[in-house]
């Protein structure tokens, strides 16, 4: 499956980048959102964003990621700000117009540190570009969805209204991608 190969390549690049350099920035430099995956100008391809990867590569503990996906203008960024106890002025950018504010996938630069069974874990929050916005293809939406699915430990599908058949199809697609990705590497999949 082409999408799973792209996801594998994405994580290989992140791992190589993580081991290749170290960052000397203080935590205050990372108290904002950073892009980790950005669209090209035509919204047909995705590319890695250096500043987001630098925010991630400085983390030395195991990482768990919470990603929020859903249609555009459905409150994904607002929900993440609530989870982080941040106002809309200090957290992820929240748009008030019809145009989407988030392009690609963004990460909050300061992880939430948790102790899980005696292990310190850094929880990252990922904001994604919404589906079905004007000027984008379904293939582009599927790429964002697939990347968010395999990058996250917890995936929140934020819907502003009732569940539609298309939403169920997208979730089914996410499960297929995750099963194939984790199956290739013999990871335990729950």
TrEMBL record:
GO MF annotations in UniProt: GTP binding; GTPase activity
Occurrences of domain GB1/RHD3-type G (ranges): 60-190
Extent of the signal sequence: 1-22
Keyword Nucleotide-binding carried by entry: yes
InterPro entries, alphabetized: G_GB1_RHD3_dom, Guanylate-bd_N, P-loop_NTPase
Record key words, sorted: GTP-binding, Nucleotide-binding, Signal
Entry keyword annotation includes Nucleotide-binding: yes
Similarity-based family: Belongs to the TRAFAC class dynamin-like GTPase superfamily. GB1/RHD3 GTPase family.
PANTHER family found in the cross-reference section: GUANYLATE BINDING PROTEIN (PTHR10751)
Protein name: GTP binding protein
Organism: Musa troglodytarum
Phylogenetic placement of the source organism: Eukaryota, Viridiplantae, Streptophyta, Embryophyta, Tracheophyta
């Amino acid at each position: 499956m082409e999408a799973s190969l792209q996801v594998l390549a994405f994580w290989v690049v992140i791992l190589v980048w993580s081991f290749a350099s170290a960052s000397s920035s203080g935590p205050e430099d990372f108290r904002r959102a950073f892009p980790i995956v950005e669209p090209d100008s035509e919204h047909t391809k995705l590319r890695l964003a250096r500043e987001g990867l630098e925010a991630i590569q400085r983390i030395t503990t195991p990482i768990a990621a919470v990603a929020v996906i859903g249609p555009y203008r459905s409150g994904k960024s607002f929900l993440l700000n609530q989870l982080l106890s941040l106002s809309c002025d200090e957290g992820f950018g929240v748009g008030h117009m019809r145009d989407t504010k988030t392009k690609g996938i963004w990460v909050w630069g300061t992880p939430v540190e948790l102790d899980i069974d005696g292990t310190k874990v850094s929880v990252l929050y990922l904001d994604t570009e919404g589906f079905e916005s004007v000027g984008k293809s379904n293939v582009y939406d599927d790429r964002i969805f697939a990347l968010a699915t395999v990058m996250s430990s917890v995936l929140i599908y934020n819907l502003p209204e009732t569940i539609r058949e298309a939403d169920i199809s997208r979730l089914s697609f996410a499960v297929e991608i995750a099963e194939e990705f984790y199956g290739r590497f013999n990871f335990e999949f729950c």
